[in-house]
Amino acid sequence: MLGTRERTLLLDNLRPPPGYRLRRAVGTSFTLDLMALLTAPLAFTFFDAHDEDGAPLADPVALLEALRRHAENVTLFCQAGAIDVPNPDQTLLAYLEGSVIEVKPEEDGGIFHPKVWVLNFESEARPDIYRVLCLSRNLTFARAWDTCLRLEGVLMEEGDYPRNDPLADLLLALPRLAIRQPIRDELREDIERMARDVRRVNFKPPHPFARFKIHNLGLDGSNRWPFRKGGRSLVISPFLAGLTVQSLLREHGLEVLISRPEALADVVRRVGREALPRTCYVLSPGAGLDARHAEEEGEEQPDGPPLSEDAIELSGLHAKLFLFENGPETRLFTGSANATGAAFHANVEVLVELVGKTKDCGIDALLGLKEDPKLETLRSLLHEYHPEPPPECPEPEPCRELERQADQIVRLLATVPFKAKVQHVDAERLWDVTLSGELPRIPGGAKVKVWPATLPPEAAARIDGPADTIATFKRVSFEALTAFFSFEVLLREGQCDVRRRFAVTAELVGAPENRKERLLRSLLRDRRRVLQLLFLILMGEGADVLTILQAERRDGMTAQGPFGGWHRGTLLEALLRTLSRNPTQIDDVARLISDLKRTPEGKELLPEGLIEIWEPVWAAREALRS
User: What is the number of other CB atoms lying within 10 angstroms of the CB of residue 494?
Assistant: First the structure.
């Protein structure tokens, strides 16, 4: 049964097991919100990485310390042209510039659509642990009903588990799908190591399932239709294609279909009511995860990525499940694929097949009892949907052709190998940034703009046609230097107005080598933030960051005083405890202090009296090392 109270947060599933730390995380997503990726390292670093409502912590110093530790160990592969345009002035995005790799399928016409994380955790005294998350959600802040399958196991010294081969194949395929080659050697070697490792991990399926199988769709001519014929079935899919639903109905005994009203109505309009099973469900009006925001957010994001399959982030249903009963045995497929032709004939997708007993895993067990007084079953969130016959003369859908043209332009632009050259122009920390790349021919009626993603859209430059030099942005501040660039495509025809916004990555050339260290100083604006960062470093992996933030609010700490509101003895005690238990964290403190001492501005941020405390601690650390 899918219990409605059995909810989990992605950050919870990314968190290392007790006594472990992250070695490498490789994730995949169709659409990507850079701010969502920015918060992911929080899960690898701190014990409590979100507030009581489940929202990731927005504290800039906590984010900075999480990124400083783990951003280089996190890699996210996403569909080219499907990165959301971030809000401007996000200086911390600099730490993600090596973490995002845009890809596209090897076959034309499809999209890169899997939502999988492969996590490698290490410990000094125990063997590595691998965790696999197979999700139905993209890496965004969308509030929707999704699914998350978690497989976990210990890396064995010996052993071979062929059922893990598709997972290894997926990892090995990711670098060759990248549109901007080459992938750096260190990352490629790490992915190859992980692919070898996962073949030696005995992943356990979740209760009550007995075994599992991984299906890659769209890689190396892999099987496009993994479902067996016969039996009775249930499907949950927010997006539908009439022919695919007909096939499930005809060959797989589709009895229950759960989707969105718009998707069900579209099947009726295009194919007819006979293409749907007798029982169709939609979410009840009050079943939204956050009813307060559902009406405000709506379903469409007009300024987001192209409106291809699953590009619309929903506030309601976004889960994908295919369940097939065959006598006493049931097979449940979960992952990224919708019930559409694109999912099984064009896209790159990942599904995990779980096998269990029908009495525990079948349709009735999944839906739960019809009468559930506690409203804890999936059925309690649904109400039956009765599709109405379409009008005899349906009105043509406006702007559809213009939307296809805009999507085509986005796909072409997103695959260009961009280069951003940075040139220092004066002593005021101002820079000129020149974006270059071999652009495709842009249709005459299209208006295309581009701007650095750290600047507002008002800074955009118009692109008129093919040219090696696309645009130059004058006198950009040091904090605004970025490898992320935002694009806008606008098409107008008659009453139709189609706008697409998306972000891309570029190769950043000429930026200062110590750029991240200088950004660190610009983010640590006062002594309170310096002390907060010092305590976060000393607390180490698994720290409860809320302890510090709540103490600050409770005790009314400010930036005033030699220790920014903190007690001198508290810091000395923390340094000595860390020196005794984990001296390598003292090295991290040393790097921070050394970096701040390099400039007059940094020296001003060091609390008065800190050096007197620090020097004997550092001397003791060097003595231990020798």
Answer: 8
